[in-house]
Specification:
It is a single chain. The protein is of the alpha+beta class. The chain is built from eight helices and six strands, in the order E-E-H-E-E-H-H-H-H-E-H-H-H-E. The strands form two sheets. It has a four-stranded antiparallel β-sheet. It has a two-stranded antiparallel sheet with strand order 5-6. The termini are far apart. The relative contact order is 0.14.
Length: about 210
């Protein structure tokens, strides 16, 4: 089976699949830069164009300033992201406390526990969704990420937007459900992307 390729364009959209010859044509046409994210069918993962050996002859002809994105960027590592997450949870904890008050501590029946914790759980989820989707969609960063100087962007460095922010939030839930493995991937991958980033085509970078 012939190997094919897909890319994340400058508008954050996915293009392809195309053949290798078509892909090289895109590099020559300026549609692909050194940092453009490319998916190859036999690898099944997204990598910057500069990491594909078969494209090196075309990449070498690009101007140094041609990155295919908003300039060079530095990915944020595991521990700064942990710090940002802790700060975000503290902020959310304060918001939830102000709205709902302290956690209920005593229940006389199972029905009473469900009646008290059910609405609280739904409320917590709604507040978290508004917080993460709203801030990521508008600023590209939550308060925690702002403190550590990070922001979330599309894989090619373009602005996230509310739709992608919502999908990323849902994917981050999956990263957590898988015993946190989706988050731990940030510590071991060269591009510092978690499972949720890979699923929706995002990355966390330092602000310029």
């Amino acid at each position: 089976m012939e190997t094919n390729y897909k890319i994340i364009g400058g508008d954050g959209r996915e293009y392809g699949p195309v053949t290798f010859d078509e892909l090289k044509g895109w590099v020559r046409d300026g549609r692909i830069g050194r940092l453009t994210q490319i998916w190859r069918s036999d690898l099944g993962t997204w990598l910057p164009a500069s990491q594909y050996q078969e494209l090196q002859s075309e990449i070498a002809l690009l101007k140094p300033s041609d990155t295919g994105a908003q300039g060079e960027f530095e990915s944020v590592g595991f521990w700064p992201r942990v710090g940002a997450y802790i700060l975000d949870q503290l902020v959310l904890g304060v918001i939830v406390y102000l709205i709902f008050g302290a956690n209920p501590s005593q229940f006389t029946t199972l029905d009473e526990m469900i009646q008290q914790l059910g609405p609280r759980f739904a409320g917590n989820f709604l507040i978290s969704a508004i917080y993460y989707v709203g801030l990521h969609g508008y600023f590209g960063a939550t308060l925690g990420k702002m403190v550590v100087g990070a922001k979330v962007v599309n894989a090619d460095g373009t602005k996230l937007g509310y739709g992608k922010a919502f999908l990323r939030m849902l994917a981050s839930i999956l990263s957590g459900l898988l015993l946190g493995i989706g988050y731990l991937m940030v510590a071991f991958r060269e591009d510092k992307r978690g499972l949720h980033d890979l699923m929706v085509g995002t990355r966390v970078i330092y602000k310029r």
